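I am still getting used to backbone structure tokens and would like to learn alongside you. Would you supply a protein for us yourself, any chain you care to pick? Start from the sequence, derive the backbone structure tokens from it, and show both lines together. Go ahead whenever you are ready, and we will take it from there.
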Amino acid sequence: MTKMNFGDQPAVVEVYAAKADEGNCINYKFVSTDQKAKLGGMSVKRAVEFVLQKCEIDALTEIYKRDVENLIASKPNFSVNIYGKQLDVKKEEGTGNVLVDERENTIADSAYWDTTKDQSGNSFALCKIRIVDPPGEGGLERKL
């Protein structure tokens, strides 16, 4: 794993519900050095939880936040997709015991980030996380 070097630029984590379009997301901007340092040890699962807790709420983000929370609650065995990389929960056949939870991967992996520019031309690092329905049956007791 190569860790993302955020440098001086802000880091933005966006969370989408399933197949939501680009505008339908909630996000949180990690601006200070201390905040970005938190991302170094944060799992993908924890990053989703953090954004749900810390995002600025307005009428639209409230709706999207509820959508994400409802999707997670109704699909406890959800997967996440970050720039086309799917992170799944692998279970043992028969017992349903969790063998590997790829959502525990560290969000700081550079493969999960892209550098982009805002409308003013300022660079920032962006991570887009989609909560998706996993293939097949199952239910994890452990949610976010």
Observations:
- The chain has one domain: 11-132.
- The chain has a mean pLDDT of 84.
- Residues 11-132 form one domain.
